[in-house]
Amino acid sequence: TTRSWDFLGLSSHYPTNVLQNSKMGDGVIIGVFDTGVWPESKAFSDEGLGPIPSRWKGVCKSGDHFNAATHCNRKIIGARWFIDGFLAEYGQPLNTSEDPEYLSPRDANGHGTHTSSTASGSYVRNISYKGLGPGTIRGGAPRARLAIYKVCWNVLGGQCASADILKAFDEAINDGVDVLSLSIGYSLPLFSDVDERDGIATGSFHAVARGITVVCGAANDGPSAQTVQNTAPWILTVAASTIDRAFPTPITLGNNKTFLGQAIFTGKENGFTGLTYPEGTGLDPASAGSCQALLLNSTLIAGKVVLCFASVARRVAIRSAASTVQEAGGIGLIIAKNPSDALIECSDGFPCIEVDYEIGTRILYYIRSAKIPTVKLSPSKTLIGKPVSPNVAFFSSRGPSSIAPQILKPDITAPGVNILAATSQLDQLMDGGYAILSGTSMATPHVSGIVALLKAIHPDWSPAAIKSALITTARTKDASGFPLFAEGSPKKLANPFDFGGGIVNPNGAADPGLVYDMGTSDYIHYLCAMGYNNSAISRLTGQSTVCPMEPPSILDVNLPSITVSSLRNSATLTRTVTNVGAPKSIYKAVIEPPTGITVTVRPHILVFNSTTKKISFNVTVSAAHEVNTGYFFGSLTWTNEQHAVRIPLSVKTKILQSYADDN
Amino acid sequence: EAKSNVYIVYLGERQLDDPKLVTDSHHDLLASVVGSKEVASDLMVYSYRHGFTGFAAKLTESQAQKLSELPGVVRVIPNSLHRLQ
Which end of chain B is flanked by fewer CB atoms within 10 Å, N or C? Predict the structure, then answer.
């Protein structure tokens, strides 16, 4: 977070932004469902904070190495843990011999401390990771309060039981939180919105019905389509992007050519050393130099830097190659791979430098042509601002939703790559209590913090109004005004299934002009359109519900997006916007139609005054295509002199129905 | 002896205002299947009583099936694990 808030336009140096206007989220309570908290971190200092909000009804509970009287304060106002559901699956007692853990809100893993400090940590100056990414860390809403609900346990990287998550929802709703932040997901295939195995969909429905915004990660299964999780329309689902920061790492070859790789390499420069590539023989000569299955001869490797080529983007290839090279006595690793954004530091300052296949191939040709190839690896540097532009992260899960493609997911994108924030003192990858982590887990609390700022400014806005404000004002272009890209193979222009509305723009969201609002009746509309039965809907909502004989159209759910996943000829849908700007306002529609699609909007002009605050309009989309197509993308923007209220349009023609080409 | 697992018995939006009464109703409902309130107390893992109503309990598959057939029960589903992102 030493750069991410500046990247999002929330620099604390500027007096006129939503950070200052919201008094940094003072009075708002953010509940975090995660692995707990390391309360001694300076990120949770309560210096300068006023009394705990009087509506707070939660508790701070003492436990293993956690003393409520001293570890809770005016920043961490609540802390408790829920483990019984997990233990029932895992078995009792919790085995802490391999992975340390505390039966208390104390965080052994570090993940919960990282997400909590990103959402609402206090200012901590002069922080870096071994000199990289220096600056001030803080949360999005530095004066908001934190309620910690430890529902995830430090087993196999962090596991959380749905019974425990549901209990945390039950208590958090009663405690008086305003925002809930969940960097938690399940695995595909998804459970339905009314299946409590999910836990998050059901619990969040009840929270949202009480005005609590629930922010969840989209998951890390990208860049494949249809991998997005936490897809219920009442949830605010967050994708991850990079920021305008990079860690270039010089690789100087013996022929004096220098390439810049990416790494978190904070060790010493060793000068020129030998460089080798494990050439193979036989039927698959490339296999010897594959990072996933390096075949090394220790006598040839000792004291040298090794080049390998990875055929998978995941970090496991780097970890496996690094340990193989280290065991063989190698002193460094250059990994040629598809970009995966998230950097990891190899152990003990061992250099693991990533390059793309093009640079990897050029290094390989140098090795093959030189009599005695040599290389010098220099420590990583921090580069911020232009020319580094943000991309949707490789790992960030992509839409469309596999449950309901008409409900655009993810909703919004926030920084989630190489984020420096507070962590547990037991985190093996930390430097002085701070660590660099990547994932939609890190993007989620960025949005939770921003939601807290919006709640402070607009306490009467519904969760749907806040979501609409975020989506309709999000950025789809970089600082130079060019479209954003999404990492993948190959990198491509980002579309709504990559980033929802775009990269979150907190200052714009504070004054969106119009919102596409929703309440329980709209969610009932959605549930009826999905074909869920009357009794399940009635029980979920607490309202006796009889869905119409002819199910309502899911296209009419009042979302700040339009996604037509199966257009044959034409379709007409309805939206309603609520004016939250100046009472007298006139908006005009600006349509950017998807390729081959005609879009008409009626009425084309919306006139608001002191009595007319809501106006409905119809959108008709017609296809010229006569074949099944993929998705084409466009937008509908309502504009006046001050505002541009943009929603994404995604349309796919499907002449042949029920044909498996949904992605 | 049949193996017990944690099941979530979901009853929907809360109908009673007093959380204590809500929890009592959960014990009554579970007792109607497992035989007594004492046994029900032993098997109860969580009573969901503020934001919505339901409970988590250690049940055999047949007990879960019986509960799912009772009036007012929306669904009975097994506990499952999520992961950090």
Answer: N
* Per-residue pLDDT at A157 exceeds 90: no
Which candidate, A205, A254, A193, A277, places its Cα nearest to that of A234?
A: A205
Q: Are strands A514-515 and A352-355 parallel, antiparallel or unpaired?
A: unpaired
Q: Are A495 and A633 in contact (CB under 8 A)?
A: yes
Q: CA angle at residue A83 from A82 to A85, to 5 degrees?
A: 105
Calpha distance A286→A77 (Å, rounded) = 57
Three-class SS state of A573: strand
* pLDDT bracket for residue A195 (50, 70, 90): low
Task: Mark A280-311 as b/e (b = at least 16 C-beta within 10 Å).
Answer: eeeeeeeebbbbbebebeeeebeebbbbbbbe
The whole-number pLDDT of residue A12 equals: 81
Angle at A170 between CA A164 and CA A172, to 5 degrees: 100
| Residue A540 to residue B5, Cβ atoms within 8 A | no
**DSSP symbol at A596:** T
Q: How many CB atoms lie within 10 A of CB B4?
A: 15
CA angle at residue A462 from A460 to A468, to 5 degrees?
A: 120
The ipTM, to two decimals, is 0.97
Active site residue A441: yes
Say yes or no to pLDDT of A661 above 60.
Answer: no
**Single-letter residue type at A537:** I
For chain B, the residue count is 85
Other CB atoms within 10 Å distance of the CB of residue B71: 5
Give the residue from B11, B51, B81 showing the smallest Cα distance to A180. Answer: B51
Residues 146-205 of A with CB under 8 A from B: 152, 157-167, 169-174, 183-187, 194-197, 199-200, 202-203
Model confidence band, residue A94 (pLDDT cutoffs 50, 70, 90): confident
Give CA–CA dist A342/A395, Å, rounded. 8
Q: Do A539 and B74 touch (CB under 8 A)?
A: yes
Helix, strand, coil shares of chain A, percent, nearest 5, are: 25, 30, 50
**DSSP β-ladder status, B44-48 and A631-639:** unpaired
Q: Is the four-CA dihedral A577, A204, A119, A435 of positive or negative sign?
A: negative
Looking at residue A484, the DSSP 8-state letter turns out to be P
Q: Which residues of A52-71 are buried (b: 16+ CB within 10 A; e: fewer)?
A: beeebebebbebeebebeeb
